[in-house]
Amino acid sequence: MRGGSELFSAPLTKPGGRLEYATFLGNEEKLPQMPSTLDSVLLRTDFPELPLHASGKVRDVYRLDGQLLFVATDRISAFDFVLASGIPHKGRVLTQLSLFWFDFLKDLVPSHLITADVDGYPALLRPYVEQLRGRSMMVVRADMVPIECVARGYLSGSGWKEYKQSGEVCGIKLPAGLRESDQLPEPIFTPAIKATSGHDENISFEEMVKRTGPQLAETLRDLTLRVYRKAADYALTKGIIIADTKFEFGQGPAGLLLADEVLTPDSSRFWPADRYHPGRAQDSYDKQYVRDYLESIRWNKQPPAPGLPPEVAARTSEKYLEAYRRLTGRELET
After folding, report:
1. Superfamily of domain covering 6-141
2. Could you give the CA distance from residue 245 to residue 275 in angstroms, rounded to a whole number?
3. pLDDT at position 198
4. CA dihedral angle for residue 315, residue 317, residue 323, residue 324, rounded to 10 degrees
5. Which tens digits make up the pLDDT trace of 9-60?
6. Contact 288, 67 (CB under 8 A)
C-alpha cells in the first residue's frame, strides 16, 4: 500500500472476493470445542472507534492519528488459507520478538516502531488495553517498498526446489552437489513479490532493479544481508540456525525503515542447531508442524479451512514460545 504497508493493501481474498478467514469470522459457534487451547486465543479484533486500514493473515491494522496500529492476532495460515482455529500466544510472540529485533538491529537500520507501551496509547484505546498488551504496536505510516527482501544462508524451501531444477536460486548460480538444508558458501539475496495468487514469487535481482531502480535495489540487497548476518550470528549463540528470512522495508520521513514483523517463526526458518543434519528437511520452530498435520488428514486445500486438534495447536504454541525464550532469554509478556 502506498502510504502504508504493501502487505496490507487489500483484504485476504480468494477468487470471488471472499475473505479467506470467512470460515471463522461470524461463525465461532461452528468451531471445534478446544477449551484447553482456545481460552487465550484472539482470532479477530474490533475497535469501532478506529477505521480498519487492512487485514492480513495475522495482523489487523488500524489508522490512528496519521499513524498505524498493528495488532497481531493468533490466526495461523497454511497453504494460503487462514485456519479455523488459532495458536495460543502466537500474536504476542510475533510482536514481542519483532520488538526485540528492532532494538537489536537499530544500529544498522531504524524501524517503523513508535511505541508498544499500551499505557501510553491514545485515550480512546484505554478500554482495549488488556487485549492490546503484548501484541500491538503503534508505527510510522511508511511508504512500503513492494519487494520482499529475502536472505538465505541455507538451501531450503523454494530455493531448494529451484536449485534442483536449475542449479540456481533467483538467477544466482550455486556450486554443484549441494544437498537439501546445506549451508551456502555465503548468504544470498533473493527478492520476491506477491503473485496474484497471494503466494510469494521469487524474482531475479535484475527484475528487482527494473521495479525499484538500481540504487534502491543495491541498498536493500546490501542492508538485507548485513541485517541477516548480524541476526544469524547472534541466534547461533542461542542454539538457533536462521536458515532464511524475509524483511519488509518502507520509506519514512528520514529514510529507509525496517517494517512489519522481523525475524519471527512466521517470517523465517528457525532450526534447532543441535538437531541440524543436512541432506534432509530439518526440525523447525515454525508452522511446518501444522502443515504436516494438514497433510496427514489429506485436506484438499480448499475452503472451508479446518480447525486444529488441541494437541496440535498446543504443540505449535510451544514451538513459538521456545524460539522466543531462546532468542530473548526472557519469558513472554502476557
Report:
1. Phosphorylase Kinase; domain 1 (3.30.200.20)
2. 19
3. 59
4. -150
5. 333 322 222 223 333 333 333 333 333 334 479 999 999 999 999 999 999 9
6. no
Q: Which amino acid is at 122?
A: P
Place of cell 548485513: 226
Q: Which CATH code is given to the segment(s) 144-285+324-328? A: 3.30.470.20
* pLDDT per residue as tens digits for the range 228-245: 999 999 999 999 999 999
**Domain boundaries of the chain, sorted by first residue:** 6-141, 144-285+324-328
Cα gap 218→330, rounded to integer Å: 36
CA gap 93, 130 in Å, rounded: 16
Looking up cell 489508522 gives 63
pLDDT of residue 196: 59
Residue with cell 497454511: 78
pTM as predicted: 0.87
Q: Please answer whether residues 125 and 148 qualify as being in contact, where contact means their C-beta atoms are separated by less than 8 angstroms.
A: no
- Give the whole-angstrom CA distance, residue 136 versus residue 95: 7
**Where does 45-89 have alpha helices with state H?**
none
DSSP state of 51: -
Which residues lie across from 172 on neighbouring strands?
169
Q: Which one, of 235, 309, 263, lies nearest residue 87 by Cα?
A: 309
CA distances in angstroms from 76 to 5, 153, 156, 185, listed in the order given: 20, 25, 21, 33
- C-alpha span between 196 and 37 (Å, rounded): 34
Helices and strands per DSSP (H, E), number in the chain: 8, 19
What dihedral angle (degrees, nearest 10) is formed by the CA atoms of 319, 333, 249, 239? -40
User: Using CA atoms, how far apart are residues 316 and 124, in angstroms rounded to an integer?
Assistant: 34
Measured distance CA(77)–CA(91) in Å, rounded: 13
- CA angle at residue 192 from 189 to 193, to 5 degrees? 155
CB 142 within 8 A of CB 252: yes
From 213, 221, 161, select the one nearest 189 (Cα to Cα): 221
Alpha-carbon span 54 to 282, nearest angstrom:
34
